[in-house]
């Protein structure tokens, strides 16, 4: 049984049904997410891009590395935002090694090709694989490092899990190393909800594509007309919870896992958490994770923060 089959089986037979958001990103899902990032309502990408485009000198100077250092980026993707930081560093003739880490070999090949053309002076060493497998084999010598965990990826974990994840990253860092963490901030509740419930229905299509993927890869017979998308934002704790809702009492057959799954009318399938934080909560999280908070870098609307921490 594949990990996808096992997770679908366990998730849909649980008392509270769920599907893991990591499975959103098949080819079609990745394409839809590109559409999401271009939506006017989806402020996250542009807010962080603004930070890295307008404040790269301030970020680099705050790191205060005196000689060559490494930038290790966890979950790089296409690297479009990070390129703004790298461009500034190269322009200032600061010696740096860039080590982007991503599970997608193709993404790393494209990024390396792009950066070799745009920033030929940059030393780039792409690393393909799971974060921790890559970090366990990583040798940075005696030079300091700036670790990047951007894109509000930390928001996809419950607060306690986020702390454990960042602690684990810290296990591979030395005292004095820095980490720049991208975190979406609490703000007007309607601004946040609209980013996950756009009028064009793109986010709905993104979630529904997960059912299409189960149909295609596991031979299931989900009828997409019998499900809908439901996002909910709790402005008090900062949780955006995304779910799919069954519109009627129904049974879905999934041959690959030899299961028929019953869905009650109005039953939910939990798909994703997107957690928002206050600046105070970000600083508290740094302390819990074994870091010392150093500086916040905010976009012009204070929607998003890239927060710089120092490993104790």
Count of alpha/pi helices: 11
Characterize the biggest β-sheet.
8 strands, mixed
The CATH class of the largest domain turns out to be Alpha Beta
Q: What's the average pLDDT?
A: 95
**CATH fold annotation of the largest domain:** Rossmann fold
Shape descriptor:
globular
**Rg (CA only):** 21 Å
Number of domains: 2
What structural class is derived from the secondary structure elements?
A: alpha/beta
H-E string:
HHHHEHEHEEHEHEHHEEEEEHEE
CATH architectural type of the largest domain: 3-Layer(aba) Sandwich
Percent of residues in helices: 25-40%
- How widely separated are the two ends? 42 Å
Low-confidence stretches: none
The portion of residues forming beta strands comes to 25-35%
How many beta strands in the DSSP annotation? Answer: 13
CATH level-4 homologous superfamily of the largest domain:
Vaccinia Virus protein VP39
């Amino acid at each position: 049984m594949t990990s996808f089959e096992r997770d679908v089986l366990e998730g849909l037979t649980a008392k509270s049904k769920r599907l893991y958001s990591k499975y959103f990103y098949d080819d079609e899902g990745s394409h839809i997410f590109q559409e999401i990032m271009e939506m006017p309502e989806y402020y996250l990408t542009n807010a962080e891009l603004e930070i890295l485009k307008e404040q790269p000198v301030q970020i680099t100077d705050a790191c205060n590395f005196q000689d060559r250092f490494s930038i290790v980026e966890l979950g790089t993707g296409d690297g479009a935002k990070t390129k703004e930081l790298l461009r500034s560093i190269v322009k200032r003739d600061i010696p740096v090694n860039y080590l982007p880490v991503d599970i997608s070999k193709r993404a790393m090949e494209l990024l390396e090709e792009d950066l070799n053309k745009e920033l030929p002076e940059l030393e780039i060493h792409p690393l393909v694989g799971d974060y921790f497998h890559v970090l366990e084999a990583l040798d940075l010598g005696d030079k300091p490092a700036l670790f990047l965990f951007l894109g509000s990826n930390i928001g996809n974990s419950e607060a306690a899990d986020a702390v454990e994840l960042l602690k684990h990253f810290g296990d591979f860092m030395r005292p004095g190393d820095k980490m720049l963490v991208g975190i979406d901030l609490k703000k007007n509740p309607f601004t946040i909800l609209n980013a996950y419930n756009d009028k064009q229905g793109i986010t709905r299509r993104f979630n529904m594509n997960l059912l299409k993927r189960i149909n295609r890869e596991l031979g299931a017979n989900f009828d997409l007309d019998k499900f809908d998308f439901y996002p909910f934002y709790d402005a008090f704790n900062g949780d955006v919870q995304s779910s799919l809702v069954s519109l009627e009492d129904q049974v879905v057959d999934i041959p690959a896992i030899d299961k028929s799954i019953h869905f009650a009318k109005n039953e939910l399938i939990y798909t994703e958490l997107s957690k928002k934080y206050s600046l105070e909560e970000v600083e508290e999280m740094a302390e819990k994770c074994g870091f010392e908070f150093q500086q916040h870098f905010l976009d012009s609307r204070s929607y998003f923060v890239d927060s710089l921490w120092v490993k104790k």
